[in-house]
Design goal:
Chain A: This is BlaI/MecI/CopY family transcriptional regulator. The complex is a heterodimer of chains A (147) and B (309). Chain A is 57% helix and 11% strand. With 147 residues, chain A is mostly helical. Chain A has a domain at 3-79: Orthogonal Bundle (Arc Repressor Mutant, subunit A), CATH 1.10.10. In chain A, strand 2 and strand 3 form a beta hairpin. Chain A starts with a helix and ends with a helix. By secondary structure, chain B is mainly alpha-helical. In chain B, a hairpin with a 5-residue loop joins strand 2 and strand 3 (145-149). The two termini of chain B are 23 Å apart. Classes of the chains: A mainly alpha (147), B mainly alpha (309).
């Protein structure tokens, strides 16, 4: 919870993205030293290897042995990495509903029946008769109270 | 005096019919704001009441660091069974503090983790994640972000996608997470306020739905987007995402969108059955919030006058 710790964690998150980005700019499999050079001097070699190993655990990079070291290839892009992180968060946090407002909540089996029936009704009404929905009223009303 | 000093602890019960009626009959925007305020006031009074009971009931016990004058005979005369009430209030107050602290801590943690998860994705307020699980979230902050997966977008028609984004943008623009955090904390402070929390969780979604319907210009498109998204999610391969919510507010939201739009600023007229019920319940809620506040303040004033400070 301390600030330096949090900063380190955030830094690691950013670094994962940067290392993956560098790998994706490479023409083929590259070494950790290549990544280190590519990202500029202030990163230690061991840090780069640590980050690469984390990415390997997340299955967004692969590696093969070449000579005495490994060469690394990206298997996913930055968006995929973000998706993996987000999934881990969503699967792990129980109290997230106060922060993240989900578009829909889960559907119990009974509700599924009701919902399908409702959607059929909606489709049966046809897409053209828009004005019957009375959507002009909230437009006028909402406009006045917007802050 | 007498038992009324305990009123702030139980008066939240009176908010239940209000929550129900506001959810059904008021515009979701009005309902969200009203219920959030009622919940916050009642939770505040209930916690203040607990704190004062702790002071009055235990200040004269040996070993208590509080000044003895804080619980003089006149003050204790105002509280029936002050010793028992005070001792019982200590763990209750502790639980409230722990539960609220935990909620706040988790709130911060989820926000930070979600932000960290999205680092590296530049630019746009919308983060589209390649994922086979359909979900969409509004992540509050400055600027807020909308997180949506390719699986969900792929299942929606273009107009329905616009409805989805309008819905999430409405959450961010109206800062619904503040209302939600307030009612979550209130429900932790006094468990009797839990129905208000569920009501606000629902009305905030309805509020965003109505905003989306206004932005898209077609209520049925929003209804269909919500329905399709829910059906996609229920078929999703990971049960963990779905296992959370026990009740299903989704069909109610869809049905509400298929019905005519709710009246914007107007409350229902008093002389109809619905109007009388809503006004009566709202008056009851305000009265009990006031009396809750009154009890807490009276207890505080007794304490204040009886104390040399």
């Amino acid at each position: 919870m301390t600030t330096p710790h949090r900063r380190a964690r955030r830094r690691q998150g950013e670094l994962e993205g940067q290392v993956l980005g560098a790998l994706r700019e490479a023409d083929g499999p590259v070494t950790a030293a290549w990544v280190q050079e590519r990202l500029g001097g202030d990163l230690a070699y061991t840090t780069v290897v640590t980050i690469l190993t984390r990415l390997l655990a997340k299955d967004v990079v692969s590696r093969e042995r070449r000579g005495r070291s490994f060469v690394w290839t990206p298997t996913a892009d930055v968006a995929r990495l973000a998706a993996l992180r987000m999934r881990r968060l969503l699967d792990g946090e129980r109290d997230r509903e106060a922060v993240l407002t989900s578009f829909v909540t889960a559907l119990p089996p009974d509700d599924e029946q009701v919902l399908r029936a409702l959607l059929e009704t909606a489709d049966a009404q046809g897409p053209t008769e828009r004005t019957s929905c009375g959507n002009t009223e909230p437009t006028a009303a909402d406009g006045g109270t917007e802050h | 005096m007498g038992l009324f000093v305990f009123l702030p602890l139980v008066l939240p019960l009176s908010a239940w019919p209000v929550a129900r009626l506001a959810e059904l009959h008021l515009h979701p925007r009005t309902a969200t704001r009203l219920l959030t305020w009622v919940a916050a006031v009642m939770a505040g009074c209930s916690t203040l009441c607990l704190a004062l009971l702790v002071v009055v009931g235990t200040a004269q016990l040996p070993g208590n660091p509080l000044p003895d004058g804080w619980a003089g005979p006149e003050v204790r005369a105002a509280v029936p069974r002050d010793g028992v009430a005070g001792r019982a209030a200590i763990p209750a107050l502790g639980l409230v503090a722990a539960a609220c602290g935990r909620t706040l801590w988790r709130h911060g943690r989820v926000t930070r983790r979600a932000r960290r998860a999205l680092t590296g994705l530049r630019g746009a307020p919308v983060a589209v994640l390649p994922d086979a699980t359909p979900y969409a979230y509004a992540l509050p902050g400055t600027p807020g972000r909308i997180v949506v997966t390719t699986a969900l977008l792929g299942g929606l028609a273009p107009a329905e996608r616009r409805a989805l984004f309008a819905h999430e943008r409405a959450h961010l623009a109206a800062r619904h997470h503040r209302h939600l955090l307030a009612v979550h904390l209130a429900a932790r402070a006094n468990p009797f306020l839990r129905p208000l929390r569920s009501a606000v969780v629902y009305t905030a979604e309805r509020w965003a739905d109505e905003e989306a319907a206004r932005a898209v210009g077609d209520r049925r498109v929003v209804a269909r987007a919500i329905g399709k998204a829910a059906l996609l999610s229920s078929a999703a391969p990971t049960p963990t995402l779905a296992a959370l919510a026990a009740t299903g507010p989704v069909p109610r939201r869809v049905a509400a969108l298929l019905a005519p739009a709710p009246a914007g600023r107007r409350w229902p007229p008093v002389f109809t059955a619905v109007g009388a019920a809503v006004w009566g319940a709202a008056a009851g809620a305000v009265a009990s919030a006031m009396s809750s506040a009154n009890s807490a303040v009276t207890l505080f004033l007794i304490l204040h006058t009886a104390t040399p400070l």
